[in-house]
Design goal:
With about 110 residues, this protein is mainly alpha-helical. The protein contains two helices and two strands; from the N terminus they run H-E-E-H. The longest helix has about 35 residues.
Length: about 110
């Protein structure tokens, strides 16, 4: 078995993690810069940055009550599925994939 490919995989995953952190920091800086400049869009030769809005809804008590009822029904359905899995009535399809879990550095 070639150990080199596993090491290379780990190195790339580490680089991706570091780049994602840098990207998150830069995203926040870009956002703050655009807000301070009162810009909703900034065009760049490589693409366009836009400030997007997302809505967050607050629902009536009736909807919340209905949601609670449906949630309890979903729990019952999950229990029924588990029973079928355990009794063998449900059938499973197994697939394989690669998973890597990094050693946590303290």
């Amino acid at each position: 078995m070639e150990e080199k490919i596993f090491t290379q995989y780990i190195q790339i995953q580490t680089q991706i993690r570091e780049l994602e952190e840098q990207k998150k920091e830069l995203s926040e800086k870009c956002f703050q810069e655009m807000k301070a400049s009162e810009l909703h869009q900034v065009k760049n030769p490589l693409g366009t940055f836009s400030i997007m809005e997302r809505k967050s809804w607050t629902y009536s008590k009736k909807i919340k009550s209905d949601e609670a009822l449906i949630t309890s029904q979903i729990k019952v359905l999950k229990e029924l599925k588990t029973q079928e899995e355990e009794s063998g009535v449900a059938t499973a399809e197994v697939s394989e994939s690669l998973r890597f879990q990094a050693v946590k550095v303290v």
